[in-house]
Amino acid sequence: MKVLIPTDFSAAATKALNYAQMLFEGASVEFHLLHACQAPTYKIIGNRSPRSLSAAFATERSKQKVRLDQYLEDQVGKSSNQFHNYYGEVHLGTLKEVLDSVRWDSYDFVVMGTRGATGLKEVFWGSNAYDVARMLPPVPVLFVPEHATFSPLKTIGFATDFRRPFTAQQLRSIKEIASLWKATIHMIEVYRTPELNEEQERNLEALQLYFKDLEHEFHVISAFGNLESCIAAFDEELEVELLVLINYPKSFFQRLGREPIIKKELFHSQIPVLIISATG
């Protein structure tokens, strides 16, 4: 398994790495830490020739590579897992520019930290983290709030409206994580009307068949009219420790994410979120 972790050496990025180390402690993993950097503006302005500009970028890249190597040495020193291996890369450019050049078929997961008291708010409402979620190809992206705490995974919440068929590729990451921890998958329909139509019934049956070798349950939860109450139900009523969403265009969670309550920053949750691309 290969896991890509963008890092800026912040507390949020370190939390993402530490969470990934614990989440995948029972698996053989290559952790690839990716740092995107740019030469300081004053160096760019002060170097007019292409040669001197290139030298400024090379110097900055070398400096950041030393920093990343030291960071990796510090973090690996805290881990005794012999099945985990670590690699570090430094690329010039913004994070978005660097991610645009990544060969995604080389990775199984991306793990990214989110800052602030409400990591989920960042994912759902116009943040850099959500921009990354929208631009990424079919690699599942795990967003870890800066203040999230890890405990052995017992419950995974998979929230959907069951209006679209699922593919094995989309569901593979859920199955892998659930199998690692023998966790129960709670399939949750967030409904406006509680009755499933024929298409939803077929999609639910297909989902149950795919998860037949794992503990799984089906729940229906009213959308409550706002994201805060909806996610709180996952967290409090079902004690979900990891929330999974498929990033369909105009999906229910995107519609809920446009509510004023998010703008007011009233929603505080520490549930890590795994977002799976609809094209996966």
Descriptors for this entry?
alpha/beta, 10-stranded mixed sheet, 10 strands, 24% strand, 280 residues, 40% helix
Map the helices and strands.
Layout: E1 2-6, H1 11-23, E2 29-37, H2 41-46, H3 50-76, E3 84-92, H4 95-100, E4 109-114, H5 119-124, H6 128-135, E5 141-145, E6 155-160, H7 168-181, E7 184-191, H8 198-210, E8 216-222, H9 227-237, E9 242-247, H10 252-256, H11 260-263, E10 273-277
Parallel strand pairs: 1-2, 1-4, 2-3, 4-5, 6-7, 6-9, 7-8, 9-10
Antiparallel strand pairs: 5-10
Describe the overall structure.
This protein is of the alpha/beta class and 280 residues long. It contains 11 helices and 10 strands. The longest helix has 27 residues. About 6% of the residues have low confidence.
Brief characterization of the structure:
With 280 residues, the chain is an alpha/beta fold. 40% of the residues lie in helices and 24% in strands.
Sheet with the most strands, sense and barrel status: 10 strands, mixed
Rg of Cα set: 20 Å
Average pLDDT: 79
Question: Roughly how many Å apart are the termini?
Answer: 17 Å
Structural class: alpha/beta
Number of strands: 10
Unreliable residue stretches: 117-121, 256-268
Order of helices and strands: EHEHHEHEHHEEHEHEHEHHE
Query: In DSSP terms, counting alpha (H) and pi (I) runs of 4 or more, how many helices?
Result: 11
Shape: elongated
Strand order of the biggest β-sheet: 3-2-1-4-5-10-9-6-7-8
Instruction: Please report which band the strand proportion falls in: under 5%, 5-15%, 15-25%, 25-35%, 35-45% or over 45%.
Output: 15-25%
Q: How helical, in percent, are the residues?
A: 40-55%
